[in-house]
Design goal:
The protein is an alpha/beta fold and 187 residues long. Helix content is 57%, strand content 12%. Helix 6 crosses helix 7. Bound molecules: adenosine monophosphate. Adenosine monophosphate (AMP) binds next to helix 2 and helix 3.
Length: 187
């Protein structure tokens, strides 16, 4: 089963992705984690993306799409993907469509975790203390939220007419969201 978790930064995509990984024995595809790892390992890609990442800006599509391509073409992960943070633009959504077609896969569920700006700010400030992420400063959070509104939210138009699209209240408690997602999976 392939699932997309969609929503603004701080909506709880990563948390729900971990639950789904456990439940389905799947693979969490967090482009944020993949990119942070490139920086940690000080790779060529890492050197190219560090400034954009720290400033809360998007990493260029070419780099992200290439990393995602490797994932889609990995036979061990086929039909077992939990996307967390991809696609984040219309062009990435189109790229994903193509890769799914090329690898004979489809998306089974799209869960949109919808949360308002104030809740996000509170959550990310808490995460900053827990995880000390360099892109969790308040002005960076606000920039990331603006980018979400301008570039990522329009991706909803790409998916929200699909019968496998479900909108959830991302302000609910983690456990409540997990239960709702699990219920949809068993319908
Ligand atoms: P995340 O961990 O999903 O909040 O992502 C952290 C940062 O990684 C983002 O603010 C972007 O700089 C970068 N990033 C993650 N996913 C993508 C993506 N699909 N496209 C472009 N940049 C991304």
């Amino acid at each position: 089963m392939n699932i997309i978790l969609f929503g603004p930064p701080g909506a709880g995509k990563g948390t729900q992705a971990k639950n789904l990984v456990e439940k389905l024995n799947g693979f969490q595809i967090s482009t944020g984690d993949i990119l942070r790892n490139e920086i940690k390992m000080d790779t060529e890609i890492g050197k190219k993306i560090i400034n954009n990442m720290n400033e809360g800006k998007f990493v260029n599509d070419e780099i992200v799409n290439e990393l995602i391509k490797k994932v889609l073409f990995n036979p061990q992960k086929k039909d077992n993907l939990i996307f967390d943070g991809y696609p984040r633009s219309i062009s990435q959504a189109k790229n994903l469509e193509k890769l799914l077609k090329d690898t004979n896969q489809k998306i089974d569920f799209i869960f949109f975790l919808n949360v308002d700006k104030e809740t996000i700010i509170k959550r990310i400030e808490k995460r900053k203390i827990q995880e000390s992420r360099s892109d969790d400063e308040l002005d960076t959070i606000l920039k990331r939220y603006d980018t979400y509104m301008h570039t990522t939210k329009p991706v909803l138009d790409f998916y929200n007419k699909n019968s496998n699209f479900y909108e959830l209240d991302g302000a609910l408690e983690i456990e409540e969201i997990t239960t709702k997602i699990n219920d949809f999976l068993t319908v």
